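Good morning C.,

I know you're traveling, so I'll keep this short. The sequence:
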Amino acid sequence: MLFNSINYLVFFPIVILVYFAIPDKAKRFWLLATSYYFYMCWNARYVLLILFSTVVTYFCALLIEHVRTRRKCVLALCLTSNLLILFFFKYYVFATGTIERIMAALGITVNTPSFDVLLPVGISFYTFQALGYTIDVYRGTIKAEQNFFKYALFVSFFPQLVAGPIERSASLLPQLDVPHHFDTERFRKGVLLMLWGFFMKIVIADRIAIVVDTVYGDIGSYPGLYQVIASVLFAFQIYCDFNGYSTIAIGSAKILGIDIMENFDAPYMGLSVAGFWRRWHISLTTWFKDYLYIPLGGNRCGKMRKYINKMIVFTLSGLWHGASWSFVFWGMLNGFYQVVGEAMMPLRKRIRSIFHINTDSILYKFLAAVTTFVLIDFTWIFFRAGNIGTALRVLRMMFSSYNPEIFKTDEIQFLGMASGSFRMMVICIMILVVADILKYMGISVSDWIMKQHMYIRASIVAFSILFILTFGVWGPAFDISNFIYFQF
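The tokens, ready to paste straight into the viewer:
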């Protein structure tokens, strides 16, 4: 079930009405039942994978807490069993295909077994959430959860089940202990968040997708600035698509009385690649930091080891995003940026000192943010292209010609949309940028709206709904657009 579907607009109000109407003791079971139903709307059979992960991590956590010996063996069993399931459904074809190509290059024919399986939606997200819980129990950060149904709800809570944020057990589990009651303030904030999420997804991301899919779908017909436009727009598409999902999830959970973590913090306002990654997909970035980077030694083992650890983390982060060498290269490139940036920090500081550069000036921050965006956008080409060969072809086409005349004519229509729709897309992106600048400055637009008179709030909500309905990508020509991160 997609957030941007009629099904969800029917499903969620029913969930709310029943949740706040039934006795407190039944609330947790209702959320658990609706979470499983939410997932089963996609593919009922694959709900067994969530159940498997839930059962294994639940009992392994209990064993880890109650046995004095073999705790590492239990943890290893838990990690291995879950990661093997993830490997089979997500990476088996990639791994066997790579092996076959390597062996073929050596003149050896290898025929590996093939399986016709569909990648389960959200498997990377709920697997990491469950494994994070088990590791927390092993470390003694939290106590093992005794109530199986409560833990099952932690793993499957529907707002963030299929595309995050990847919640931490210490944050979400205690909230599931408390039966929540209807709160007008939380409802208002939740609705505002959901509307902003729908705006990012339906109005911006889905409109941008028309241009990006047109250009990337026929690379040879769109040289020069066409490729530049599509690649820049993809940076905003993936941001609005993924952040839109996260924001709708946070808003939905807030209405139900549950707070889940913020996943994005104006990432394109980052002044460095490292700053970008502190603001982008925060739940995954911090997961890798806490459960991989620090256990590898973090920055405690010297510079060279720290750089190696960063490269390992970002390489695996790339692989987490998809079973393709282009994703691996995307991750490695982001890691390489950070290693080079950190290694050159003394030189950069010296240059700033020699030329008396004020790092607090607006001009410096603007240039740093633009530079960071260009570097990040370059990596998005490999992310979007699907394979390294296609990405290199995009880069060749990007520099094959210089055609600024496309802005002086109506040629922009050939990117899949009318010029008026293209201008609306640009205006909406500008609204997004202004909102992120305000957020970067510590100004919350939603908090400002909440402080206004009831009639002003109602007018803003009504206008937002009308705007989304008017300028969202709808109609028989377009399918309900899936969220990009559903494939991860």
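Safe travels,
E.
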